[in-house]
Amino acid sequence: MRASRISVVFLSLALSALSAPSPRRRAVDNGVEVLLFDSPAFQNPADASSTLASIEVYTYQTPIDTSELGDVLHDILSPLSIFGVDASGALETALDRVRLVAAVGKGGQAVTIDVNGCSQPATLGATSTSPDNGLAVQTVSLGQCGDAATFTGALTGASAQASMTVFPSADSGFGVISDIDDTVKVSHVLNKLKLAKATLFDEPEAVAGMPELYSSLASSLSSPNFIYITGSPYQLYPFLRDFIDTSYSETPGPIFAKNLTLSDLGDLSSFLFDSNSTFDFKTSQIARVHEMYPNKKFLTVGDSTEKDPETYGEAFRTFGADFIQCIWIRAVDKADNSDKRFAAAFKDVPKNKYRVYSDDDIVNLLPTIDVAGGAC
């Protein structure tokens, strides 16, 4: 039982790293902390003068005693010694990064966020109880907002402020939907030991050439909104958000991450690595994007390690070429890059609407493609 327990916890910790405490979190008087997620905003279809935002928050408590988590971490660090990781020196760093995996979601919490530049605060009803304890994703009105590219939100009445960025965008023009792991960030999804090392210890690394490519898209697509959709759990949000902030500072955007709560721990390995779970999550989030921006055209960017080809192919079949303008898939070494796979994934998708690209293409080809003009 010990070996089985360690293997499951290993999988959970490998994908549940968190950065050190962030200004996006704060504690309130009752001991409940609030994590704010950056959010997309869009014109209210019923009132063109007002703005709606799809806002996500998480309310939780962190246990004071993390000794059991430390013991588990100590046990799982030894396999990483083959990569030069010193378990004795790395334990504190790893413990800090994964601390939120032990957090207990606290439902029933009302959250109010003041959004600078908008006429009314974002008022969310009580956060969820069972089964998504502490999580809330709600569409709320911000009233009338100015014409700034972004707005900053902060918890009302908080002595130690938690902040978020609201990204407004018109329901026209172009947007970019992007995966994160092994699309814009080196994660080694196909090698679990390397994945654990990259998540627990390494400074996050951008896929070579992708920051420059996204910067070029920001220009050629006339300031598209970027939305990052990842199969990683939302406990990783601060870690991933800081990575996007740092490595993709010219193309920031909200991150939609998969729901993982303590109630999932008993079935954690299948939750994290079941490709159908990730497929279902990502297709639901693309539908969420379509609900906000039904008249916008999107370039979707992903990779071949998991289910991005199947996800984007399904989105094209569901919403059509008016919404999914173009699909780019990075061919990752040792993934299934077979013609058979892509033929199935892109069934009924015209061949001029998708492209499987190599790492060399990131620098030499993709920046030259006139996506705005209809090329792919």
Automatic annotation (TrEMBL):
Q: Quote one Gene Ontology molecular function term.
A: phosphatidate phosphatase activity
Q: Name one GO cellular component term.
A: actin cortical patch
Q: Which residues form the signal peptide?
A: 1-19
Keywords, in A-Z order:
Signal
What are the Phosphatidate phosphatase APP1 catalytic domain coordinates in residue numbering? 174-330
Its recorded name reads Phosphatidate phosphatase APP1 catalytic domain-containing protein
The species is Cylindrobasidium torrendii FP15055 ss-10
